[in-house]
Specification:
single chain, mainly beta, paralog of FGE (formylglycine-generating enzyme), 3 helices
Length: about 375
């Protein structure tokens, strides 16, 4: 494929764009803002993909009421939590096929390409997220405990995402019921989900938001440290205490009884420990495709080409500079924290007409703008 060399040179407060001969001049108008898509597919390579769906922003009551059956003390006090931004969550737990494609190994005890990966520590899960972020250009991470419970409940206030009854769990979750051969004393011998150990993801019913296996199959790591009762919890986008000694797990597993699979149930473990009942699912930051408004310019470390977008069947090449949401000349040198010298010259080579290109001016020299995700 032919290549187009795009050069951004900033001199004396003016941005000059040079394109290779034969390429049409870029549009000077920013692309219109759009809402995040309702679902997202990540390409992991080798025809392996990961499906995520958009979880809307909103409020919910986190924790369980004092009278809930099987309630534990660390599930209270109940408190209203605001999830201020939408996010994408994996429709399924991370599978062995997906994990092996990214990490190059499959540590699972119960092999099956579509079964959830297990025998993974919190540290393993975080490393997976880092590698998948680098591979896809998205911000992939473990869900916070609040994000997890919010998505699990899917608007409900009951013990499970489907209601209150233990006897209905086998329709939605793989837990220690009649099909389990471990012989544990807590085995439910009256119901049968059809799976002895882990089940292929999506084998049972989804919750009202289209997420599978939020109850049972494998415990799922969350991002934050565990703390006891929610007495000091924040009410907006809580991220837990810092530091701590154990990381949060949610959802129960194929080896547990129904009470551990409840929406509010919490568990915890040292982040280096692995187990055949432990897996995870991921979330992705849902950034809108619009310009991030920033008050000043940074060095070339963050001045460059970010973001790509397809417009229907046509892929477009667009180049522009923005400041406070508008095209703009650069501010005076004294307003540039990193100095004018750090802003001279940037070359980025990309296939012609394959990318929707945006150049952002932003305060943070370490992190690309969230709208580039």
């Amino acid at each position: 494929m032919a290549k187009t060399l795009v050069t951004a040179v900033i001199v004396f407060g003016v941005a000059h764009w040079t394109l290779a001969a034969g390429t049409a001049p870029p549009s000077t108008q920013p692309a219109p803002s759009t809402q995040p898509a309702k679902d997202l597919s990540l390409d992991l390579g080798n025809k392996v993909t990961m499906k995520l769906i958009l979880i809307p922003a909103g409020q919910f009551i986190m924790g369980s009421p004092a009278g809930e059956k099987d309630r534990q003390a660390d599930e209270g006090p109940q408190h209203e939590v605001t999830i201020s931004k939408p996010f994408y969550m994996g429709v399924f737990e991370v599978t062995q096929q997906q994990y092996e494609q990214v990490m190059g190994v499959n540590p699972s005890e119960f092999k099956g390409a579509k079964n959830p990966v297990e025998e993974v520590s919190w540290e393993d899960a975080v490393e997976f997220c880092k590698k998948l972020s680098a591979k896809t250009g998205k911000t992939v991470q473990l869900p916070t405990e609040a994000q997890w419970e919010y998505a699990c409940r899917a608007g409900t206030k009951t013990r499970f995402g489907f209601g209150d009854k233990d006897e209905d769990l086998y329709k939605y979750g793989n837990y220690c019921d009649k099909s389990n051969t471990n012989g544990w004393p807590w085995q439910d011998k009256d119901h049968n989900d059809g799976f002895d150990k882990t089940a292929p993801v999506g084998s049972l019913k989804a919750n009202d938001w289209g997420l599978y296996d939020m109850h049972g199959n494998v415990w799922e790591w969350c991002s934050e440290w565990y703390a006891g009762p929610y007495a000091n919890a924040k009410n907006q986008d809580p991220t837990g205490p810092d530091p701590g000694s154990c990381r949060v797990m949610r959802g129960g597993s194929w080896d547990t009884f129904p009470s551990f699979c409840r929406s509010a149930d919490r568990s915890w473990l040292d982040p280096v420990i692995r187990g055949k009942v432990i897996g995870f699912r991921v979330v992705v930051v849902a950034g809108r495709m619009h310009l991030r408004r920033c008050p000043c310019v940074v060095s070339t470390r963050n001045l460059g080409v970010y973001g790509r977008r397809e417009c229907g069947q046509t892929q477009v090449l667009t180049l522009f500079l923005v400041r406070r949401g508008r095209r703009s000349a650069l501010p005076p040198a004294e307003r540039m924290p990193w100095g004018r010298a750090g802003l001279v010259g940037r070359k980025v080579e990309r296939p012609a007409r394959s990318f929707h290109i945006r150049v952002y001016l932003c305060n943070d020299p370490q992190t690309p703008p969230e709208s580039a995700l």
